[in-house]
């Protein structure tokens, strides 16, 4: 089978011909329709989990995927052959990922039945970004008409945060880098946008909201910028970052709660997203569809934080 893999940590990804994975007890064999790309994918090949989980080389990349179950292993009860599923395929050993024509995934992984109202290509874009958005908003705890500043709004997670926040009546101010981004976030449900290439986000927010905003979600900033953005939050508010640059003591001195946020993938979170998609409340922001051969270049764009929306790898479709 074809797969995108690396031969060692920090090696350049290549399209390789590798053996089809062997079904094991408690796992399902998936014919992968598509894989969703996330920055965590290249962090894995850089060795972010080295020493924490076993790794297999050649290491097949990819966490998010969607496809059809070809076979079920001994003891599997949640799924059957022919089921369309999606979710996070990551499991031990690292290296049996979703950037492949076939993948084996433990039944107990963060996978569930795919939404029926969208193609599997779109479903592959949802798991990590969708669950991150869903869970970070829940952790932030804002209520109807409270004000949220979203930094890093035009990426995959940001696109889901805007929609899910708007569904709850939260007033979203999104940072963007151009007019195209401003139009995109407005369509998704943001009430305001600030072009950080033209204006100072700090000055704009302070001028318009002198008493402070209610919450901050920052998906991209370094520690210094995150602290600047967090200073815009009123006392008693909350600030969260997925970039792991927050210091609890600094936030405490500002009189706000929050800190670093990590997603915990689970089937219940996926099922809630599925319900929102099937009901038409949530749409999947697929920006770019690529082939396996395009993956190395797409990863370089992601490393430079130049990706917009979600990029999906088309694998077994058509």
Automatic annotation (TrEMBL):
The GO molecular function terms of this record are: oxidoreductase activity
Highest taxon listed in the record's lineage: Bacteria
Q: Which Pfam families match?
A: ADH_N, ADH_zinc_N
Which SUPFAM superfamilies does the annotation name? GroES-like, NAD(P)-binding Rossmann-fold domains
Q: Which Gene3D superfamilies did the record assign? A: Medium-chain alcohol dehydrogenases, catalytic domain, NAD(P)-binding Rossmann-like Domain
Q: Where is the Enoyl reductase (ER) domain?
A: 11-313
InterPro entries under this entry? ADH-like_C, ADH-like_N, ER, GroES-like_sf, Lipid_raft_assoc_Zn_ADH, NAD(P)-bd_dom_sf
Q: What is this protein called?
A: Zinc-binding dehydrogenase
- Give the species this sequence originates from: Chitinophaga tropicalis
